[in-house]
Amino acid sequence: MGFLTTVTLHNDYQHEHRADLGAFAALLFRLLDETSMHNLDAALAGIKVHPSRHADDHTVYVHHGNTTISLVSRDFDEMVRCAPNAAEDYVRVAERIIRQARAELEKAKNQATVRLKPRKAKPRKARKP
Q1: Contact 54/3 with Cβ under 8 angstroms?
Q2: Averaged in consecutive runs of 10 residues, what is the pLDDT profile of the chain (129 residues)?
Q3: Do the beta carbons of residue 18 and residue 34 sit within 8 Å?
Q4: Would you tell me the crossing angle of helices 84-116 and 74-82 to the nearest 10 degrees?
């Protein structure tokens, strides 16, 4: 298993990044390097790079407002300390999304159960000799 890095791109900066794709790529890789070296997120010019995580190190990211945050991160821990009401809001958003996902999962399971029920075999007529 390897490491995964989550990147958030703010659409407000697309026109600037499209104008110079080389500068965009250089900035992205600079932020990736900074994140890897310090195990902290890095953000600049509408690009936010979250710390790399091992594939077995699970988290939930919440996109809320104009921010993306991992609920298992230093950023979230700091939010809990400095702005507990905001942290509570992020948790409520995550819980709402999980409830929606669970409802969709249950709906899909029920549909699959209906589709996967074996058909009753029709009695075969005896062959005439």
Answers
A1: yes
A2: 88 93 94 84 91 90 91 93 96 96 91 64 66
A3: no
A4: 130
Specify the pLDDT at position 36. Answer: 81
Q: Where are the domains of the chain?
A: 1-55, 59-117
Which amino acid is present at 93?
V
pLDDT at 12: 92
Among the listed residues 47, 24, 52, 49, the one whose alpha carbon sits nearest the alpha carbon of residue 36: 52
CA–CA separation, 52 vs 79, rounded Å?
20
C-alpha 13/C-alpha 78 separation (Å) is: 27
Question: What is the rounded distance in angstroms from the CA atom of residue 40 to the CA atom of residue 49?
Answer: 9
Asked whether 75 and 54 are in contact (CB, 8 A), the reply is no
Q: Report how far residue 66's alpha carbon sits from residue 73's, in angstroms, rounded to the nearest whole number.
A: 18
Q: Where are the alpha helices (DSSP H) in 1-129?
A: 14-19, 21-38, 74-82, 84-116
- DSSP structure class, residue 72: S
